[in-house]
Give the backbone structure.
Amino acid sequence: MITLALRAGSSPRRVLPGFGLSLGVSLLFVSLVLLLPMTGLFGQLADLSLAQYWAIITDGRVVASYTVTMGAAAVAAIVNAAFGLLLAWVLVRYEFPGRRLLDALMDLPFALPTAVAGITLATLYSSNGWMGRLLEPLGLQVAYTWVGIALAMAFTSIPFVVRTVQPVLEDLPVEVDEAALTLGASDGTAFRRVILPHLWPALVTGTGLAFVRSLGEFGAIIFIAGNMPYETEITALMIFVKLQEYDYAGASAIASVVLFVSLALLLAINLWQGRFIKRLHGGMG
Amino acid sequence: MSRLEGTQRIGDAPRVRRLLVIAAVALSALFLLLPLVAIFAQAFAQGAGVFWTNVTNSYTRSAIGLTLFITVLTIPVNLVFGVMLAWLVTRFRFPGRRILQTLIDIPFAVSPVVAGLVYLLLYGRNGWIGGWLDTHDIQLMFAWPGILMVTIFVTCPFVARELIPLMQAQGSRDEEAAVTLGASGWTLFRRVTLPNIRWALLYGVILTNARAVGEFGAVSVVSGAIRGQTNTLPLHLEQLYQDYNTVGAFASAALLALIALLTLAAKAGLEWRAARQEAST
């Protein structure tokens, strides 16, 4: 099937019109909008010696920002894996009043501008906000700590998990459940042993995408983060700070690290997912 | 209750079901719904009159104007690109097809701040294109063209991503038949392809709109944020918030939240339509 398709590609006879036009427009757009701007980054990096580059990206304050960003993103991703799985399960498996509304609400973090999410979360969780007033007497300070950063990351990335797991759960045939239950397994065991193995490729993909998104998030985080050097500064903010100091080389060096990590992770997720899809559908990528 | 009766599924016991539904609804209300309510509560904290004054003051009006202007220019560009790319990768097989599909995901993986930065480096005064433009007195960065360029960058995958899976699933049999019957390219697209993809196309445009209106990170790098000139609505609300004008900031936030709610409603509507169509065929 695949080899056939490839061969058809090299055949001169194409039935449908528009190959040249759509190829031309697509290549022009991808080159101008997506690829050409990247040359600016590499041009700027070329002006740096390797020692200078290394000094910038291993500077103490910058390294602290990697730790804060990665740590908070990891916590947000793990929380979202559990919360997202629960939401996907409830939305697919149960019928209850307000289900459609809940389903629609899941896309809110994607639709809501990040700056709006940012100021809202900062206001809610500050010491006189609705949530802050409840949590602070309990000793839980959310705003201006890494907990706030993780919260903002979790908010903006929850749809990734829900929307990746949901379709897989929908396609799971009823027989899977029946088989498990007929064998006398309890709900918990049946879920762990039978359902979870079907879901976990999607769950890992969704969680991975949520993690990548969290690494790059800016608008939702900076308002609630407090932005204390070494404590609550995220890497995206470090780039922004360097730019405001007109340190373009510094900004580019840090940006290259962020860019490399997120593209590598995205590639890894794609390859990993591709392997699973192949295994599940017998080679039909 | 015996498990062997009917088609009992995992987690169907009423106690489990109730517990999970309550947990999901309560957590969503706290985590997603409460922020949404808070936006409007803050915006109207000093009454509808103050809200109206905040929304209609000249800086807010100019921010709304710029945001709409950028969005209105972004949508047709990404519409044409999205349709062309989707047509290309779903109707033809050629070497590099997969790479092209991966490339359009770049904006999803790149941090918005990094996206803004790469444009600034290239088209800013120190960049190799920006330097040349500068000698010809053309300024793209810290002006609306820069905002438009990064907005196109961050929103360009949306239309294509909505169309590609649909057009792949639909196949090209109808279109091939139309060509055999002698339809020209444009007629083919307008009469055969477009009716099949119009709802996905519309949803792609709605997503593009939502993101274009709300983009913050990339725009804040290239805009310069000059009040009344290069401030988009998200940048405007940031400035108000930093100036401790919380109610003013949330007035702008409420406008953006309203657009987000309309986006969600449109999605729910389109999904309902699709489900009904599927049920009737």
